[in-house]
Amino acid sequence: MAEHLQLRWEPHHDGLSRRDRAGGFYDAYLPDPLAGWDLTIPADVAADIADAEAAVRALNQRGTTHVSLEGLARFLLRAESVGSSRIEGLAAASGRLARAETALALGGDPRDRVAVEILGNIDAMDSAITLASEAPSFGLEEQLEVHRVLMERSPTPELGGQVRAVQNWIGGSSYNPCSAAFVPPPPERLAPLLDDLFAYVDGDDHSPLVQAAIAHAQFETLHPFADGNGRAGRALIHVVLRRRGLAPGFVPPISLVLATWPDDYVAGLSAFRHVGPRGGPGRSAGAVDWLRTFATATRRACTDAERYGDQLTELTARWRETLGRVRANSATDRLLRVLPGVPILTVESASRLVGRTRPRTAEAINRLVDAGILEQRNIGRERYRVFEAREILELFTGLERALASPVGDTRLEPPNRPVPRRPR
Ligand SMILES: Nc1ncnc2c1ncn2[C@@H]1O[C@H](COP(=O)(O)OP(=O)(O)OP(=O)(O)O)[C@@H](O)[C@H]1O
Question: Which residues are noted in the entry as ATP-binding (predicted)?
């Protein structure tokens, strides 16, 4: 039975105010395990979930722009891998990251410390997700490894891969949980609940989107780490959708939309935390509120990603019109195909990507520069010569900004969290 445990807080800290120094009572939440839950989902919400799953599937099957979505979606992981308090990291434009990444790939010094640090976080998220998605089975050990990788580049790497041994809480005073918005289970109650959660993640009791939503909510409810629960919980959504095969190539940015609707997000998590008997109707009713929010966020993430895919298609069609005749399978033709996924190139990297000699590739690049499609830049301390498709980077910034607008359009409602500035 899910319940609140009333516990006494013995003060440890010399807090600033009398209230912070004081001890007192608090309610820690103890959820039910997930195993054997007979979750009842009403028809309208089941239909919402089916629609959202179909949208994710369609996005993953989207022929030509599929590779492009995958290519740039890596940068979307920035907001999932950088703590939400890191404003500078969240507001760094994708062009800046792509340039730093290119300089690093060339063995140089990008001279942009912030971008290098963000890239490190993205890599950590990327490898944590890959590791967990490809592991033959998923259990606590895999989750600890994911957390270790995620925390490696954080200010507190020593917290990585360790289940907390102390009580934590969300909101209220920093000194005691007595005024907290939510208090997760006490540390000594975590072990069986974590085993239960990862058995659920490894199974297929529910459809993939339901599983991702419930795994995320139960994970945030347990808050098993001293830090990095947000990052690990966001990674878990990707892991479930990949492991279940719903999103083999591209996971839509669901948690970015949830971050844009913080009130709905927290209300959904709170509704999920029912109090009462394990099989009672209150449990399913609370979970259904959360599932509705999660399905809506998924559909919105897919719509925004679809729109971005359409804009890419329109842009490349416009480029072809500007260029006039482009011979099929020529270096130019192939370059136009790879650019949406890799908008910053050198002659060498482009030559590898299009499978043509360097002189042929250089000719094609020059043609695109003459047409205003590519711009030459010098990057990094070494001043490497690169070619950049500015319009693609701008579209991507537009996608990031739209995702941060509660209504999906920054002209109607501005972004409500830090995002890159609109390109000038
Ligand atoms: N009321 C709540 N109940 C349960 N979980 C919550 C609640 N409010 C926020 N959360 C979750 O807690 C996370 C923050 O936990 P924590 O500070 O450990 O994570 P983080 O990865 O360090 O930070 P961030 O999410 O800001 O990157 C949020 O991202 C959110 O997923």
Answer: 227-234
The Cα–Cα gap between 233 and 227 comes to: 11
Assess whether the C-beta atom of 418 lies below 6 angstroms from ligand 1. Answer: no
Tell me the catalytic residues.
223
Distance of CA 246 to the CA centre of its chain: 16
For atom 25 of ligand 1, the residue with the nearest CA is 230
Check whether 67 has a pLDDT greater than 80. no
Model confidence at 34: pLDDT above 90: yes
Backbone angles phi, psi at 296, to 5 degrees: -65, -45
pLDDT score for 199: 96
Say whether 7 sits in a helix, a strand or coil.
strand
> Is 232 marked as binding a ligand?
yes
Nearest atom within ligand 1 for CA of residue 259: 29
State which of 78, 220, 258, 264 you would mutate to test the pocket of ligand 1, scoring each by most atoms of that ligand within 8 A of its C-beta.
220
Lowest mean pLDDT among 41-45, 67-71, 292-296, 340-344: 67-71
Q: What is the CATH number of domain 33-307?
A: 1.10.3290.10
356: tokens are 């043509």
80 lines ligand 1 (CB under 6 A): no
Closest ligand 1 atom to Cα of 82: 27
Ligand 1 pocket mutation, candidates 229, 234, 254, criterion most atoms within 8 A of CB: 229
**Is residue 48 classed exposed, middle or buried when 0-12, 13-18 and 19+ CB atoms within 10 A define those classes?**
buried
134 burial (CB, 10 Å; 0-12 / 13-18 / 19+) is: exposed
List pLDDT tens digits, range 198-228. 999 999 999 999 999 999 999 999 999 999 9
Q: Is residue 224 in contact with ligand 1, taking CB distance under 6 Å? A: no
The reply to whether ipTM tops 0.85 is yes
What residues have CB less than 8 Å from 151, skipping those under 6 apart? Answer: 157, 159, 160, 161, 227, 228
In this structure, which long-range contacts are made by residues 320-325, counting pairs with CB atoms below 8 Å and at least 24 apart in sequence?
Answer: 322/371, 322/372, 322/373, 323/367, 323/368, 323/371, 323/373
In angstroms, rounded to a whole number, what is the distance separating the alpha carbons of residues 158 and 167? Answer: 18
Give me 50's structure tokens: 């089916």
Look at residue 10 in the predicted model and tell me its pLDDT. Answer: 86
Distance CA 39, CA 46 (A): 11
Quick check: CB of 175 below 6 Å from ligand 1? no
Model confidence at 37, pLDDT cuts 50, 70, 90, reads very high
